[in-house]
Write a structure and sequence with these properties.
Blueprint: H1 5-15, E1 22-25, E2 39-41, E3 59-62, H2 64-74, H3 76-85, E4 97-110, E5 124-137, E6 146-150, E7 161-167, H4 173-191, E8 194-199, E9 202-215, H5 217-223, H6 242-247, H7 258-270, H8 277-284
Parallel strand pairs: 4-9
Antiparallel strand pairs: 1-8, 2-3, 3-7, 4-5, 5-6, 5-7, 8-9
Helix pairs in contact: 7-8
InterPro entries: RAG1, RAG1_DNA-bd, RAG1_pre-RNase_H, RAG1_RNase_H, RAG1_ZnC2
Domain V(D)J recombination-activating protein 1 ZnC2: 233-295
Domain V(D)J recombination-activating protein 1 pre-RNase H: 23-95
């Protein structure tokens, strides 16, 4: 326990995202290539757009790729154990790793100061986090991927890694968009690239797939720009109204998509057919704000 301070400091550094060296091939678009990144301002680049609040206090986050690297390094022993259990020679398994990540985001309720002498901030907080659900590898010449790691407790606090903490009400679409916009941009960039990281002493390559299954209905509506839960359009995946849903509880198909929601927002914004408010609302089926995050309808 009694270690010199510098030893404790370096041990502490290893626990923070930003300690491990890594590389992206091809390099990520619009994301800095430096890997020694710690905690950053969640509103970097947006400072002038959010009124009334001291911008530097509103959000803190890790850069997404740096946090994912840290998560994989935490799972290094599990990955090596998985390769051993499956009888795979770890020296030949350097590429073809696939990582499935579950994203979660929810409001944390009222976090107001009881004595109120700090800066004027929104009194609600939101946390965006992720969980590494599984890691699999497709060995050379093999058709089927082999799962070498599966999270046993995917809904546990212990497997859930916070990425961004923000002072914002989850119903504040504009501020949420401003803060999570860069996170979405980083995620999009990572989908088109692969991570080169040393695991078990060898450089290995990882691809990431993201599943937004940790959002509750309120958050899905917020991120996809839909009307709130009191809307006539009850479903976040299709265009059913309350009346239609009550008549037909079975035959629903997933018809909504993120791109379609974006197109509908443009129709809502420009009203190209000069329709009345009711006609316009009927046309866009409950899309009232610009959706900023693609939520994929998959079961956890």
């Amino acid at each position: 326990i009694f270690q010199p301070l510098h030893t404790l400091r370096s041990a502490e550094k290893e626990l923070l995202p930003g300690y491990h060296q890594f590389e992206w091939q091809p390099s990520l678009k619009n994301v800095s290539s430096s890997w020694d990144v710690g905690i950053i301002d969640g509103l970097s680049g947006w400072t002038s757009s959010v009124d009334d609040v001291p911008a530097e206090t509103i959000a803190r986050r890790f850069r997404y790729d740096v946090a994912l690297v840290s998560a994989l390094k935490d799972l290094e022993e599990d990955i090596m154990e998985g390769l051993r259990v499956r009888g795979l020679d770890d020296s030949t398994c350097t590429s073809g790793f696939t990582v499935v990540v579950k994203e979660s985001c929810d409001g944390m309720g009222d976090v107001s100061e009881k004595h109120g002498c700090g800066p004027a901030l929104p009194e609600k907080a939101v946390r965006f986090s992720f969980t590494v659900m599984s890691i699999s590898i497709r060995a050379d010449g093999e058709e089927d991927a082999v799962t070498i790691f599966q999270e046993q407790k995917p809904n546990s606090e212990l497997s859930c890694r916070p990425l961004c903490l923000m002072f914002v009400d989850e119903s504040d679409h504009e501020t949420l968009t401003a803060i999570l916009g860069p996170v979405v941009a980083e995620r999009k960039a990572m989908l088109e690239s692969r991570l080169i990281l040393s695991v078990g002493g060898l450089l290995r390559s990882f691809r990431f797939f993201f599943r937004g299954t940790g959002y509750d209905e309120k958050m899905v509506r917020e991120m996809e720009g839909l009307e709130a839960s009191g809307s006539t359009y009850v479903c976040t995946l299709c265009d059913s109204t309350r009346a239609e849903a009550s008549q037909n509880m079975v035959l629903h198909s997933i018809t909504r998509s993120h791109c379609e929601n974006l197109e509908r927002y443009e129709i809502w914004r420009t009203n190209p057919f000069s329709e009345s408010a009711d006609e316009l609302r009927d046309r866009v089926k409950g899309v009232s704000a610009k959706p900023f995050m693609e939520t994929q309808p998959t079961l956890d």
